[in-house]
C-alpha cells in the first residue's frame, strides 16, 4: 500500500488516500510524528498501528477536554469516547485518565451521593439508581452509600417542610406530593410516617 495523497480536513485531521483512493481520516500530528507522507509505503500491520495511534490520541484529547469542564465517571466518559475509538482504545484512555487521577469512580460517587442525599434529599434507593445511571458499578455505589447514615423519615420530614409544606391541604396536591416523593425512591410506609410527623 502506498500513500498517494494527504489532504487537510477538519478538527486537526487529514484525509489519507491509499493507492489512489480515499481510505480514512487520521490525526495530522500522528502522521507528522511518524513521518508519514505522500509516497510512504505501509503494510497492513503498520497501517493498523497508525490507526490505533490516531484513535488513541483523538480519544485522549477528547477525554482531557471533557474532564476540564466537569467530573465524569469512567462509564460516562467511555460512552462519550466511543464515537472517537473502539472499546480497547477507550479502555486504554480511561486507564490513563485514572492513572493521572482525573477519573476516580469512588470519589465521583461519594460527591454525587452527598449531593443527592443532602441537597436533593433523595432516598438511599433513589441515590443508588442515580449512581448506576451515571456509570458507577453497583458494588462501588453500594459501598459509598453505606458510608452515609440516613434516616428516611428524617430525610422526608426535612424535604416536606422545605418543598411541599403548602401542598398538603388539598387531596389532589397531597397525592401529587406522595407521587413525587415515591419518584425519589421513598417507600409509602416512610412517606406516611414522615407526613404524620410533619403534621404533628
Percent helix among the residues? 55-70%
Estimate the global geometry from the Cα principal axes.
Answer: elongated
- What is the first-to-last residue Cα distance? 82 Å
**On the 0-100 scale, what is the average pLDDT?**
87
Please tell me about this protein's structure.
There is one protein chain. By secondary structure, this protein is mainly alpha-helical. 62% of the residues lie in helices and 10% in strands. The chain has a 3-stranded antiparallel sheet.
Short description:
With 200 residues, this protein is mainly alpha-helical.
Give the arrangement of secondary structure elements.
Blueprint lengths: L2 E6 L4 E6 L2 E7 H6 L10 H26 L4 H8 L5 H13 L5 H14 L5 H10 L4 H8 L6 H13 L6 H13 L4 H12 L1
Antiparallel strand pairs: 1-2, 2-3
Helix pairs in contact: 2-4, 3-4, 5-6, 5-7, 6-7, 8-10
List keywords for this structure.
single chain; 3-stranded antiparallel sheet; 10 helices; 200 residues; elongated
Amino acid at each position: 500500500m502506498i500513500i498517494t495523497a494527504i489532504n487537510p480536513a477538519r478538527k486537526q485531521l487529514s484525509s489519507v488516500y491509499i493507492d489512489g483512493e480515499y481510505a480514512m481520516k487520521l490525526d495530522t500530528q500522528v502522521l507528522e510524528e511518524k513521518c508519514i507522507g505522500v509516497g510512504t509505503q505501509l503494510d497492513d500491520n503498520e497501517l493498523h498501528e497508525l490507526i490505533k495511534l490516531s484513535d488513541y490520541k483523538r480519544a485522549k484529547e477528547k477525554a482531557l477536554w471533557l474532564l476540564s469542564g466537569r467530573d465524569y465517571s469512567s462509564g460516562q466518559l467511555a460512552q462519550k469516547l466511543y464515537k472517537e475509538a473502539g472499546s480497547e482504545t477507550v479502555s486504554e484512555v480511561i486507564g490513563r485518565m485514572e492513572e493521572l487521577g482525573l477519573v476516580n469512580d469512588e470519589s465521583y460517587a461519594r460527591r454525587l451521593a452527598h449531593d443527592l442525599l443532602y441537597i436533593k434529599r433523595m432516598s438511599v434507593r433513589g441515590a443508588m439508581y442515580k449512581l448506576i445511571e451515571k456509570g458507577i458499578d453497583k458494588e462501588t455505589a453500594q459501598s459509598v452509600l453505606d458510608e452515609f447514615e440516613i434516616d428516611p423519615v428524617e430525610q422526608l420530614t426535612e424535604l416536606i417542610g422545605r418543598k411541599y409544606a403548602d401542598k398538603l391541604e388539598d387531596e389532589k396536591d397531597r397525592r401529587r406530593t406522595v407521587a413525587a416523593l415515591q419518584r425519589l425512591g421513598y417507600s409509602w410506609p416512610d412517606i406516611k410516617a414522615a407526613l404524620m410527623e410533619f403534621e404533628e
